[in-house]
């Protein structure tokens, strides 16, 4: 069996000038080490094996290995083999270089207008764990061992249909499990055929906007709202109309001049402010969608985590055959790297969007979907959510107490409704929340500036503080660092 290193060196041998075999092999290995194709500490094939793979004599390979050893490119370990050295003599003379033009200058990179716009508004944090990163659950508390057992059981003798592409919108087992769960937990009305499994909410929104909107179509979003949605809408060349949010959720205009194609809302727990969409406004949006022929996109990203009172039913289930595209995710309830979300499609859209999803994204991960279906059907999912709800409630109360103790109750958002995975810490209009977040990040404390969630110039100042992944014993020290950054900015 040919090794990966053998394949690489066979290719490189063909690229060498017509010279003696040992010199061609020497140059092939040396070049591969210098350009990183053979990384430091990687093991080279045994001389006998490499000779067979390259159809060379073993003496030729031994001669080259000895030369590379003498020059410091490789190391020989008794009984273990030959390895690329950690540092090599010509490491400062790497053969890799940036693309250059005819005049020797680096080739300029030209991105599209929408590509440049995306980069200008990019907000994804390079760090996704620690105090007080918003929206990240405690991934350590997930029952990994239990889930691994379910996966192992399914993977022992997997059916062929679980190992190929999916063109039915996902695993039938997971589709059925979600129907049963959503009916009870979220009052969602649907059948398994209406469930489409996606790689998270971003893919779902991208699919919906591509399939239902033409360039320059008007879409409504919440102001402030999730920056990830705005970036997808920009990339799809849509006319974004931000609508203000108050204590009763998004505020639809009294007079609708155009016909919004899509209306994006987070009705159960507005992101980021936290208000709940009132019944009157839910009915208003449904009537508008029916009248204009548009669709409501309901993002129910963290609805499971309400720490007091009754759960808020989904907008989708308020009316039969509602013009609502319901989107959910397992990123908050389980862990983000799972990259599994789901869409409940209105019946008229089901066939078209499932076909489009298969064409654009090639659905897969059917084994892990089947494992997740069993995890849900056996009751582990709801049990895990109950445990996490209690854990997050304690952490939320602890952080709330810290904020009130040091900054007073007025520092907490007036939309505080005891739900979700983050709090809003209010700041005076004179504060620079972007600078505070940057200063805190330099001290290892991760918060997000509220002002970055607005599109329009009029914007509130504040900080999004996640508490879900921060044990109570770590909160006080992290909060002290953040408080110092706030006070320095307000001087």
Automatic annotation (TrEMBL):
It comes from the Bacteria. Residues 19-87 form the HTH gntR-type domain. The keyword DNA-binding applies. Coiled coil: none annotated. Keywords: Aminotransferase, DNA-binding, Pyridoxal phosphate, Transcription, Transcription regulation, Transferase. InterPro entries: Aminotransferase_I/II_large (IPR004839), HTH_trans_reg/aminotransferase (IPR051446), PyrdxlP-dep_Trfase (IPR015424), PyrdxlP-dep_Trfase_major (IPR015421), Tscrpt_reg_HTH_GntR (IPR000524), WH-like_DNA-bd_sf (IPR036388), WH_DNA-bd_sf (IPR036390). GO terms for molecular function: DNA binding; DNA-binding transcription factor activity; pyridoxal phosphate binding; transaminase activity. In the C-terminal section; belongs to the class-I pyridoxal-phosphate-dependent aminotransferase family. This is HTH-type transcriptional regulatory protein gabR. It comes from Serratia rubidaea (Serratia marinorubra).
């Amino acid at each position: 069996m040919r090794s990966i290193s053998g394949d690489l060196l066979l290719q490189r041998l063909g690229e060498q000038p017509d010279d003696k075999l040992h010199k061609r092999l020497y140059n092939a290995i040396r070049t591969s080490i210098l350009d990183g194709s053979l990384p430091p500490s990687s093991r080279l094939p045994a001389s006998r094996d490499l000779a067979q793979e390259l159809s060379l004599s073993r003496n030729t390979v031994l001669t080259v290995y000895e030369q590379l050893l003498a020059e410091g490119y490789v190391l020989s370990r008794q009984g273990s083999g030959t390895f690329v050295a950690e540092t090599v003599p010509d490491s400062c003379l790497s053969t890799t270089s940036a693309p250059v033009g005819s005049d020797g200058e680096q080739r300029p990179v030209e991105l599209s207008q929408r590509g440049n716009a995306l980069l200008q508004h990019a907000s994804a944090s390079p760090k996704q764990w620690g105090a007080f990163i918003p929206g990240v659950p405690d991934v350590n508390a997930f029952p990994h061992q239990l889930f691994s057992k379910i996966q192992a059981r399914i993977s022992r003798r997997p059916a062929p249909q679980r190992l190929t592409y999916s063109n039915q919108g996902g695993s039938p087992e997971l589709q059925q499990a979600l129907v049963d769960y959503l009916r009870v937990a979220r009052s969602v009305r649907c059948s398994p055929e209406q469930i489409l499994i996606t790689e998270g909410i971003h893919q779902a929104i991208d699919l919906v906007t591509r399939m239902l909107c033409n360039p320059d179509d008007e879409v409504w979003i919440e102001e402030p709202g999730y920056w990830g949605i705005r970036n997808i809408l920009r990339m799809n060349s849509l006319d974004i109309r931000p609508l203000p949010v108050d204590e009763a959720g998004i505020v639809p205009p009294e007079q609708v001049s155009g016909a919004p194609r899509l209306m994006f809302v987070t009705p159960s727990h507005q992101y980021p402010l936290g208000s709940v969409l009132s019944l009157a406004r839910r009915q208003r949006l449904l009537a508008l969608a029916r009248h204009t022929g548009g669709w409501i996109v309901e993002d129910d990203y963290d609805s499971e985590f309400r720490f007091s009172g009754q759960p808020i039913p989904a907008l989708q289930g308020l009316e039969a055959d509602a013009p609502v595209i319901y989107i959910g995710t397992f990123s908050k309830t389980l862990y983000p790297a799972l990259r599994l979300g789901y869409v409940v499609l209105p019946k008229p859209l089901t066939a078209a969007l499932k076909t489009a999803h298969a064409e654009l994204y090639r659905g897969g991960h059917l084994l892990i979907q089947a494992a997740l279906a069993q995890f849900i059907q056996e009751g582990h999912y709801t049990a895990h959510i109950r445990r996490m709800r209690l854990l997050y409630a304690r952490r939320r109360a602890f952080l709330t107490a810290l904020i009130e103790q040091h900054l007073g109750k007025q520092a907490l958002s007036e939309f505080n409704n005891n739900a979700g995975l983050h709090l809003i810490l209010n700041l005076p209009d004179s504060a620079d929340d972007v600078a505070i977040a940057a200063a805190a990040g330099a001290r290892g404390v991760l918060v997000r500036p509220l002002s970055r969630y607005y599109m329009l110039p009029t914007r509130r100042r504040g900080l999004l503080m996640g508490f879900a992944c921060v044990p109570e014993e770590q909160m006080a020290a992290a909060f002290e660092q953040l408080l110092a950054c706030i006070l320095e900015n307000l001087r």
